[in-house]
Amino acid sequence: MKHHSKTPMDHSPYGQSFTLWRDGCPTAWQDYTDHAFVEGLRSGSLPRAAFLHYLVQDYVFLVHFARAWSLGVIKADTLDEMKSCARTVDALVNHEMALHVTTCAAADIDEATLFAATEEFETLAYTRYVMDAGLHGDYLDLMAALAPCCFGYGEIGLRLAGSAEPGTPYQDWIKTYADAGYQNTMKAVGRMMDMALERRLGPDPTLSPRWPRLQHRFATATRLESAFWDMGLRAG
Amino acid sequence: MKHHSKTPMDHSPYGQSFTLWRDGCPTAWQDYTDHAFVEGLRSGSLPRAAFLHYLVQDYVFLVHFARAWSLGVIKADTLDEMKSCARTVDALVNHEMALHVTTCAAADIDEATLFAATEEFETLAYTRYVMDAGLHGDYLDLMAALAPCCFGYGEIGLRLAGSAEPGTPYQDWIKTYADAGYQNTMKAVGRMMDMALERRLGPDPTLSPRWPRLQHRFATATRLESAFWDMGLRAG
Amino acid sequence: MKHHSKTPMDHSPYGQSFTLWRDGCPTAWQDYTDHAFVEGLRSGSLPRAAFLHYLVQDYVFLVHFARAWSLGVIKADTLDEMKSCARTVDALVNHEMALHVTTCAAADIDEATLFAATEEFETLAYTRYVMDAGLHGDYLDLMAALAPCCFGYGEIGLRLAGSAEPGTPYQDWIKTYADAGYQNTMKAVGRMMDMALERRLGPDPTLSPRWPRLQHRFATATRLESAFWDMGLRAG
Amino acid sequence: MKHHSKTPMDHSPYGQSFTLWRDGCPTAWQDYTDHAFVEGLRSGSLPRAAFLHYLVQDYVFLVHFARAWSLGVIKADTLDEMKSCARTVDALVNHEMALHVTTCAAADIDEATLFAATEEFETLAYTRYVMDAGLHGDYLDLMAALAPCCFGYGEIGLRLAGSAEPGTPYQDWIKTYADAGYQNTMKAVGRMMDMALERRLGPDPTLSPRWPRLQHRFATATRLESAFWDMGLRAG
């Protein structure tokens, strides 16, 4: 019993679970990764105000994303899972957020302002949904809700690195996610998720009764990513 | 359609904490309790499709509201707090949700459909924000996030019971919240919240350094109530 | 004092999952259900001081057991699971704890004293282990940790009802758990757990990679039950 | 209204909150920090079997301690609190546990064995009590439960560094906690806790109605430390 008919098997470098989840909601995934906001980053046409509005909210998002990965440490079953989650918390708090802080500082927005920014509904919805996925379910429920941000930014970063207009002012953003550091981290996270699924659901996780629910969590988080871009554009 | 100006002595029957929180964000509170959706319930002009869309989402909301009050049982410090939260879970699961089930059944929507309804972003944002308020903070953080729904519906129910157009088809909804059962429960919940605040913050909770944060939680949940009504109207 | 040898068909009235879990740790289960404390309840030889010490700690245990079942409401996937957990919280807070309150009142220990009792290490270990099983895992992890108390007391109650010395002063305790009300509730809880396992792990949950971990949770909670009886005897 | 009469004010380098908590349960604190197990480390008379038994359980303890500090990231109110908790998770997972792994490897116990070790009741009681302190309350409840381990090991390490018998085989253990790295980290954690208390309870946290409960949490965790040493000795 295999998923043998997916002929143009576009295996992602981020692992099999992600590939299955992504291919399980192709429209939602395309809406997210090909969003007008992303095209604006690529072409450079994205208004600066929209980018800064997004960046402030994304800073708040990362605060909660670090909380969600900390919940991963709490819910892990193996030492490798614990270490993977703890490393990600460290990467978020001490590295990825630095891009936001630096870019915002150049626009006269300091970190205390970022931390205290009023959250848009889209930020609230996405971040708290992920947290509650972890409280409600187990480690896998949390991972399925965390995956779209991790790997979607990875895909977008890679694609834009190869297609961005030379003059786009958003090269720093693109480099952050196209960078080998980010890409390698995401490959490791993808492997960890594959092992986490196999450990709990067996060698073919799609045969588990839990699979549709995990797919649903991934798709919901993907829809919330699109809404997050919409929110950014609204301020443009 | 506005609230008349408040004298400084407009104490709510739902207790002092609620009065302080409500009067600490008057515009947000008025946006919520005088919303066009509420006026539509009063006058009867609310489209049936909008009401049903709201009701389905509100059913999902109540599922998560019952989860949030269950988190209250977990976070309570006293037996009275535990019992108050447990009673509210019972009231939600076994009584308030019954209105939704009955009304939706009349529109050929069964309870399994309600439970499995796709959540709108506004539903996600509000419900998960409340859950996370409890995970993030203590019992008071949770209560501040739960209060706007409890007492706002109480205020709206009472006001509409005295002002609704006789022909409005939404009398059952109005009665549910104007009803002495609901009103008395909310008075008891308000007293419990007053005692919970005093127990942890002392006789004047507004002097505690924590007060602004609790006020912020109440105001955020109030804004999310308005967004919930907006969501209902969108489907009209 | 031993259980008679089990035929392979000794299905418990509390369902298949419990039967499997119980038969997966037979020595630990017998240590718990045939403990000297239980024999003391049956014969009447248990010192009153030991019983009262146990009862005070068991009251504190039930407070946390109600918290743990509330966590079940939070972690449930279906409306039936939510209702089952909410009913159990209500039964614990409003019924089972009443036995403790009444019995302790007769010994001049009031409910405020019970609620504020200093917890023994065995009480801390057991109650917090169950709570953390829920935070760490999903609904099934929580159920596996809740099961030994539910069904062990059911088995003990039934057995003692048929074998107690007529003069034992612990007839009220025995009746509480032999009672049709308690037994029927436990049968319903057992059915709910069977359905919860099938829903997530498929028709034969023992084939799931998660089974050993669930069995381990059940066995750990069973060992903690024996330690709880030991603690009671220590005070005799 | 001041605590003015504590004349021989033995201010700890780990901050004012810890000093107050420690001096609020002097007998329990002395039982813990002057325990026979500690004296055995100092003099070298502690049987190797007792030390190894302790070390295996302490490894499991650190796994859960890392989970508890991760819960701190989730419950933090400020970026500094988040960073402090995240740094501690990293220090535990990537540094302190290394001592255990190295020492146990020399006794032919590998890390997989450590991670899978059967937990003693004392380990269960202590670790899950700390986790539940965080789930039940807010950031301060968690900090009060985390403090005895952090600062008690700091005090013990410093004292033994100045008084250990030259021939004690437990110099590595002593150095781990007497080391400037550990000591400076604990001073920073102490400052963070002082600020966390002031931020939520005002300049004199002992005046808050919550103080007795925080003191109780600290004292309970301190008693659980003594029980943990007892457990170690049992295996000697």
TrEMBL record, chains A, B, C, D:
Catalytic function, reaction form: thiamine + H2O = 5-(2-hydroxyethyl)-4-methylthiazole + 4-amino-5-hydroxymethyl-2-methylpyrimidine + H(+); 4-amino-5-aminomethyl-2-methylpyrimidine + H2O = 4-amino-5-hydroxymethyl-2-methylpyrimidine + NH4(+)
Q: Which residues cross the membrane?
A: none
Per the record, its GO cellular-component terms are: cytosol
Q: Which UniProt keywords apply?
A: Hydrolase, Thiamine biosynthesis
Q: Which InterPro entries match?
A: Haem_Oase-like_multi-hlx (IPR016084), Thiaminase-2/PQQC (IPR004305), Thiaminase_II (IPR027574), Thiamine_Salvage_TenA (IPR050967)
**What GO annotations for molecular function exist for this entry?**
thiaminase activity
Give EC number(s), comma-separated. Answer: 3.5.99.2
Entry keyword annotation includes Flavoprotein:
no
Domain Thiaminase-2/PQQC, residue spans: 28-234
Biological processes per GO annotation: thiamine biosynthetic process; thiamine diphosphate biosynthetic process
Q: Which CDD domains match?
A: TenA_C_ScTHI20-like
Q: In which pathway does it act?
A: Cofactor biosynthesis; thiamine diphosphate biosynthesis
Q: Which family does it belong to?
A: Belongs to the TenA family.
The job of this chain, per UniProt, is described as: Catalyzes an amino-pyrimidine hydrolysis reaction at the C5' of the pyrimidine moiety of thiamine compounds, a reaction that is part of a thiamine salvage pathway.
List, alphabetically, the PANTHER family matched. Answer: BIFUNCTIONAL TH2 PROTEIN, SI:CH1073-67J19.1-RELATED
Write down what this protein is called: Aminopyrimidine aminohydrolase
